[in-house]
Amino acid sequence: MIQKWTLNPNRFFDPDPEIRKIAAELYNDIKGLPIISPHGHCDPKWFAENQPFPDPTVLILIPDHYIFRMLYSQSINLESLGIPTRDGMSIETDHRKIWQIFGEQYYLFAGTPTGCWSTHELIEVFDIKEKLNGESAGRIYDQISEKLSSPEFLPRSLFDRFDIEVLTTTDGAEDTLEHHEKIKSSGWKGRIVPCFRPDAVVNLTSRGWKDHIHKLSGVSGIDIIDYFRFIQALENRRAFFKKMGAVSTDQGVESPYAHELSPAEADSLFQRALKGRATQQDADRFTAHMLMEMARMSVEDGLVMQIHPGSFRNHNQFIFERFGPDKGCDIPVRTEFTRNLHELLNKYGNDTRLTCIVFTLDESTYSRELAPLAGHYPALKLGPPWWFHDSIEGMTRFRESVTETAGIYNTVGFNDDTRSFPSIPARHDLSRRIDSNWLARMVARHIIDMEDALRMSHALAYDLAKKGYKL
Description:
Layout: H1 17-30, E1 35-37, H2 44-49, H3 56-61, H4 65-73, H5 95-104, H6 113-125, H7 137-148, H8 155-161, E2 164-168, E3 171-172, H9 178-185, E4 192-193, E5 196-197, H10 199-202, H11 209-220, H12 227-243, E6 248-253, H13 263-274, H14 280-301, E7 304-309, E8 311-312, H15 317-323, E9 331-332, H16 342-348, E10 356-358, H17 365-374, E11 380-382, H18 392-406, H19 424-444, H20 450-468
Parallel strand pairs: 1-2, 2-4, 3-5, 6-7, 7-10, 10-11
Antiparallel strand pairs: 8-9
Helix pairs in contact: 1-19, 1-20, 6-19, 11-12, 17-18, 18-19, 19-20
């Protein structure tokens, strides 16, 4: 029997009728605002070439580690899900078969943000009328496949349909940005901009570091034989990214520790890395120094600085060796900010030319450290709940923990941080609903009035991201 499904118009709102009524009013006021997506991982090639997405599995499952990490946790190996391996070993290539696995296991996502996003995506984007499960998976696969072959579901058409005002990709320092070049020269009006992410050339012990340095030399035209030329090459690339529309940089670090070295010390560490002799301690010291350098560069060129700390990257060594990074096995670690950011904030935190957006996977730091820091330093803003906390309760905990100390205007609204393009409207819709509900609770308790709530809901959905990322 076909199981019909729909989206309740009051989903995620409080069951208390007074709060629900206010939340619905706030949400209806902002639900149609354009989407600002200032940090994500969509492939610019999709929009440069504007070719049909191959099939539902390629579009929805294979790029989305939120989905396949859950399936892996239930002993479904990644090869059977079509996830490419580093060495080209055999994987499942029957995408209909992979989708069938997804359908049979869809119940695993009940109550998770991935389940909320995916259900919204299937119903609202693809007009699927029946619940995804093992029995319906084949029919749904066919329905989505048929839609993907139509002009209305080309990448640029979906971009326009989703009412995305700007979409930011994430690109390595050595990236040529050829797809961004193609988008700009195509005459299409969609605004897709790069973000400068130098992790691969900053982390001295990362896999393939010297290869990345060689590529950086090539694209910058600077022979990187020492630290000084390395800095010149980074400044060169930042200028190019900015010319291509970039408004931000981003660094993923395990620790947000920032400490300035002397030029001679920095060059000594860099030279050891060039000789293949860098230790993990060398890499940690160099990264701490480069956080200071990135802040300096942002003061000078105006690019917004983002820091994503507190993630033990590639925790599962087996998965990393076989499939590479970004396969759903990054795990949160305890993180400290007050002392670690002290040097950076004392040197640059009072300079209004700098916007430094800090994220965290350690919720214990929200009210203890991050809100007090952002509630004081003009340059510091708080990024939205990230990854595991980009959820119904996670977003609520964030607002409740930071607002009393930092307010909402020292945060930067919402970003979706996704690799799965059709999930973007679902993620923003969930955020807008949760923020509307949180504001409605404050209205019902007479902490704020409706005028305040309407202004704040608009800011959270649109204004703060646009202002915070200088868009």
